[in-house]
Amino acid sequence: MSSFLEKQNWRYSTKKFDATKKVSEADLNFLKEAVRLSVSSYGLQLYKILIVENPEVRLTLQAAAYGQSQIVDASHLIVFASQTTVGDEDVNKYISNATNTRGLPTGALDGYSDYMKNALNPMSEEAKKIWTEKQTYLALGNLINAAAELKIDVCPMEGYDATQFNKILGLDKLNLTGTVVATVGYRHIEDDTQHYKKVRKSNEELFITI
Fold first, then answer.
1. DSSP single-letter state for residue 67
2. Which residues contact 94 (CB under 8 A, 6 or more apart)?
3. Beta-carbon contacts of residue 194 (< 8 Å; ≥ 6 apart)
4. What is the pLDDT of residues 97-133, one digit of tens each?
5. What is the mean pLDDT of residues 204-210?
6. Which helix (H) or strand (E) holds 168?
7. Nearest CA to 32 among 78, 83, 90, 98?
């Protein structure tokens, strides 16, 4: 079995973290880079990643997450927040970044810029909101896989009051909304869930070859 698959079998959604163990700065930077490099539609990355370390803020967020212990016990709390609106300005920023990064002449990516704007502008605001929310889950996937490579535990969480999270973190003022949360750290020795056998569908049930 490959190292990647071994790590995937090792990982699980940790229910109880060891609050005494912290992710090192070097490992956190590795995870951040993995998230930064995540695939994103058109490469636009229409989201922000909040790393919440402040214990007082996390205690307040715990109440908005139905009291779940992971919020305060994990080494780090990561909130993926998607943009609530998308416009030409977002495309322009990406084009400017791409032009500078690749050393291209001004206007070289005008065709791609027009292509993106023509695809995005007709979308309804609700469709754009759903689309940007989906992008955060791609970034979350990179976080989970990168953490497994380092034997760092992650618990992705949707069980929280997004409205309260937005208010506490001031996301409403930033044109953002929390879409999914991930607690990152190290499993507690008393977390019985780590001993459960992983339950997944068989290849025959899951895959369809056409």
1. T
2. 42, 43, 44, 116
3. 12, 14, 187
4. 999 999 999 999 999 999 999 999 999 999 999 999 9
5. 97
6. helix 162-169
7. 78
pLDDT at 89: 97
- Asked if 49 and 178 count as a contact pair (C-beta separation under 8 A), the reply is no
Tens of pLDDT, residue by residue over 75-105, are 999 999 999 999 999 999 999 999 999 999 9
DSSP 8-state class, residue 13: B
CA torsion 5-71-47-150 (nearest 10°) is -30
Using alpha carbons only, what angle is made at residue 172 by residues 167 and 174, rounded to the nearest 5 degrees?
Answer: 130
Specify the amino acid at residue 79: V
Contacts 24+ apart (CB under 8 A), 26-31: 27/150, 27/152, 28/76, 30/146, 30/150, 31/143, 31/146, 31/147, 31/150, 31/152, 31/184
- 9-33 per-residue burial string, b: 16 or more CB within 10 A, e: under 16: eebbebbbbbeeeebeeebbebbee
Task: Tell me how far apart the 2 most distant CA atoms of the chain are, in Å.
Answer: 59
For 52, the token pair is 């919440």
Which tens digit of pLDDT belongs to each residue from 134-188? 999 999 999 999 999 999 999 999 999 999 999 999 999 999 999 999 999 999 9
Residue 105: HSE in the Cβ half-sphere, 13 Å Cα cutoff: 1
85: Cβ–Cβ under 8 A, 6 or more apart, which residues? Answer: 125, 128, 175
